[in-house]
Write a structure and sequence with these properties.
Helices cover 23% and strands 29% of the residues. A hairpin with a 3-residue loop joins strand 18 (311-316) and strand 19. It folds into 2 domains: 2-105, SH3 type barrels, CATH 2.30.30; 107-331, Fumarylacetoacetase-like, C-terminal domain (Fumarylacetoacetate hydrolase, domain 2, Alpha-Beta Complex). The protein starts with a strand and ends in a 5-residue tail after the last strand. By secondary structure, the chain is of the alpha+beta class.
Length: 333
Amino acid sequence: MRLVTFEEPHDHSERLGILVSPDGESLIIDANYAHNRMLKGGKGRSARKLADSMVPADMLGLLRSGRKSFDALREVERFALRLGLSGLSGPKKERAIVRLPEVKVMAPVPRPGKIIHTAGNFREHAKEGTESGWEFPIPKWISFLKSPSAIIGNEGKIVRPRYTKELDYEIELAIIIGKKSKHLTKEGAWKAIAGFTVFNDITARDIQREEMKSGLLNFGKNMDTFAPFGPCMVPREDIEDVHNLKIECRVNGEPRQVSNTSHLSVTVPEIVQHYSWVTLYPGDIITTGTVSGVAAFRKEPEKYYLKPGDVLESEIEKIGVLRNYVVEDEEVY
């Protein structure tokens, strides 16, 4: 099951959707409307209230509702596919099925409470940093906060600030928290995970380098549009082995980072456990850190930094492809 947040084309509200491709065409089932239709044909106030309770209209509501709502979502998907995706509408005849190109797909959690970003967990990245002469060490368990205001979704534009010439990419697996929790065990950490998505930690290396002279990781990682993630969230149960997923980041079709989550030096539950010394809330994001192949650590990095016109594709097996476009800031503001 692949879950998305999309913008309703008429009132521009954020809606929870199930992404399906029954005949090769990508469609989005509006989960709340379809659940309403499933319950007594969507008739009556009680059916609407139950639909809103069991399958909330937005992703954050779903995450707060817990596992019962994920179970209800699976029933909705089966129900909609049995109908052949026809005859589905909301309580006021709203469209419950939309074609993917018709809507804007946002980040799965458009406004998480916090993004805990980690580094050093793929030792191949640390090794290439040392070999390239990067002046700062990359030990395990580095962490910093990524700003939610930097978030963009699939097909969104990454703005290259006019004051950086070294815009870099860092593909990562992102963990989406589904349960309020703190001081977790490894077993509890796994249960606190709702699902996974693709993240790219866009970085202005020249700004980062100056900041790190003072021990900081701040604006070089947090400029507008520097946190693309998506295109969907896949529930943890639908990932057979999160520690054996192929990772690939491409620029204009050229593979730049190719690796596998099997190269992690720590496990995903250990990462969540480690950072549960602060209270984790549904919708919070924790990333794993990146793999080898970033532009900054190559022999001629200036040839590999992102530039306007580039198409960045970040793909993780079982999840999907996050596609973004690099533009100059003058094109946006």
